[in-house]
Amino acid sequence: MAAGIDWLRLWHDMPNDPKFRTVARISGQEISRVLAMYVHLLVDASQGVTQCHDESRTVTRGVTDVTDEDIASALDVSEDVIRSIREAMQGRVLDGNKLTGWDRRQPKREDAGNPETGAKSAAERKREQRERERLARENGEHHDESRGVTQSHDREEESREEENTSTQALPKNKGGSDAASPAPRSPSKASRLPLDWVLPKPLGDWALQERPDWTAEHVRKVAEQFRDHWHAQGGANARKVDWSAAWRTWVRREPAGRVAGAGASAAPAAGWHETPEGVSAKGAELGVHQREGENRFVYRWRVLKAAGDAALIEKEVSAAARMNIAEHERAHQFFYGCLPGQMSRAA
């Protein structure tokens, strides 16, 4: 085992914990995504500082500050998916940014020990180990198990010894140096859309293939909307790790409507629900305003639901079904309050 590895705990029934199934049902996401996101939150929360029993250090363990964008990038899903899961987790496995039950499930054993919890210090554990070894020698028993130091789950004991052993075992290069593994690549950092951004030709060609009803002129118009939208956004939501992926998501979620440059035979003028301007105007009419940092697609869904047009809602749910199962379930849950198939059973 490599030295210096940090550890955290998972409980035996975690995959079958009903709370996660509830989160999956409410968020409209697959249980696998819910569990994967929770593991990311666990890892992030375990990297904080632990308070000693004398209260000389600040408590931050158990609190997560990983962004929705970072998790979405790691799991290859949209930020809306992560946001819906995080909201459903509140009051179940999350309390704000703190993971509930952290102190019970992830106790940190400090070197100084903790008389309140009964955690032993490193010196106490080492002393007990030596006593076991002495008794083993006196009794002529040499069990390998008696030589093990009880390990904290957060950091392995005897890390220096393991590191020395690992170093000695490394093969040598021709020059005599240790042949160490290459350092892992640091993850890409999120950034804002460049001010001089222009849609790359490969992404434009991809949009024409993805949306056969679009023209090159319409792709240009959509790219301008994409650019203006993200330049106007602020905060963490305006930063992306992969802007090409953000563009592809934008194109897939664009509603069908009148296509710019399509000629006289084009479809009739777009309705209010098919343009950002129309959605904003309808939202103002209904008293539904876009929240700060809110994704425009989420806002559009809220306005559609407030408008109460059954035909438009059905059209939106059908469009989500063409994307993937998870998006269909999410749309159905949002507009109808249940997963697909549950309405017919209830009827």
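That was protein one. Protein two is written in the same sequence-then-structure order:
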Amino acid sequence: MAYRTATAEPDVLASRGTKLCLIMTSLWLSYVALLPPATGYEVSLLDAVHPVARGLFVVALLCGVLVLVRAAMVDVQPRYWLGSAGCLIVAYAGYFALPLAREYVLYGRFSYDVLVHLGLIDDILETGVLSDLLYPATHLLSVALTVLAGMQPESTVALLGFWFKVLLIAGIVLFVRSHAENHSLALLTFVAAMPIFFTSNRFSLAPWLFGLTLLPVALYIVHRFAADSVRRTAYPFSVLAVALIIYHPISAFYTFTAATVLLGVVALSNRSATRGWVPDLRGVGLVCSGFAGLLGWHVHHGTVDGNVRSSIVSLVTMEAGGGAETATRAAEVNYTLEQLLFTFVIPNWGVLFLYFALAGIATMLIGYRLLRRRATEFDGHVAVQVALGGVLTVAFLVIQLYGSSIIRSAQYLILFAIPAVGVLLWSLIETHGRHQGQRRRVVTAVVLALLVASLGGATIYSTTTAYSENTHLTAASTTGYSWHLETKDRTEPTYTDMSRDVFAYYEYGYADADALIRSDEHVSAHTYLSPHLGYHESPTVRSWLPADGYIVIRTADLVWHEAEPEWRHDDLVRITGDDYDALAQDHTANRIYSNGEVRIWQTRHQ
């Protein structure tokens, strides 16, 4: 039973907190709506936001979080916690709309997969052809928004990112409320779900992330069907299973695996409660049908066959995974441990490590309760899922089985760390609410306050690091590169300082770009520019290039290092102002285009 204190004071505090949250959210949205378009290249999107406006956003988030925590502890009228929850969602709407307010063409880089996805979307809009696409759900959803709402496909990126963030929060809260049957725990889970967990992936077209977002909803349906015998939930599960399968195969696999774990926990709970152990074949049938659909849709596809073979080879050869690769790169630089920690680890994964640590503590607490036979079925389910997520994360980080990034490797653990943190919060509140000695109540209150402060800080910090620097395409940059692709001699290569170039998919559409690339047309740039354009070793740029071609330099290539601490600039700067001036005077390179953000030279051997 949830612990609640019925007094008049909480409503006064909740009322004031909700009103302040509403005022701050309104002012924040007004600022975003009036934010002028960017007039040039910006190293950081958030630096363009006035500090006072960022303060409005922070206060709105903190007020909403505090009201929800208060509502979990004491009796608060629903209008207050509902109003605060709504303000939190609306405040995030303004946050996700920042790239649109600055009128960026896209949040991303010339190397981001979102350009490939937009190329696929363009194919569907222009020809109605789906191409040889393994998971078309995200693309079809974007097409539907484009057609029905009259939006540009690029604009749907921010909208979809926001709505799937909302769906993640709503799905987790719905599942917790249904399974745990604890209103307070559901509110605390809402608080735990507030940070931006998947960094810049949250603002992009990421089919794997959109599919993963549906996992809590699927668990809710399976639990209702298996444990509560609500037969009509079989129909929404069928629809959701189809959506999962065509969103992303890994997300679908994770979802059906999590559902299998849930059924196992329910069965064990029934047995331990001396209610007899009769496997619920209906629930098993749901999950088996999901796995069968996943296998039937994807097994024939060449991409899946190649990925399976690659994973088997990686497992046999123990090829290093994303974690090992990241550790190796970190060891190669001459930075101190403190520098690595505060400029690399914490900005990228600090919030995740906090949640992993808290989820680990929650799991140990649940284990202790299980030994004392005081844990609920929901507690046991969360502990098992966190443990499984930890095993999967370690496996994918150590061995190259799926994905190379830490976030993609740990996505299962990230998802279930959220309800685990909610369980930890509720355990502290429940402990504090019992009749105990004054000293223990004070200690519990201090720990609870520190934990709430940590979660509030994690939420705020995640919003300051989620938008990566130098990660946007402006109208000038896309116009300049489009001009280059339209006018260039495709028999000659393009040399850039980009890490990867997939802009051709966005420019031509996926099918046409793929055909051009397969026919050895030079529509993708080569990452070939030497540091300082080679002038530290050669008198001309053409003397070290393998063949005549085009040199493309963007403003980002010249200023991107400004986002990093000054002590790192010497290691990061590849093209200086002096190098750029030398290129302007180089007789082997003729500048043929410039629009302020994109400069293009054509080289000729002399």
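The chain is about 65% helix and 5% strand. Keep this in mind for the problem set.
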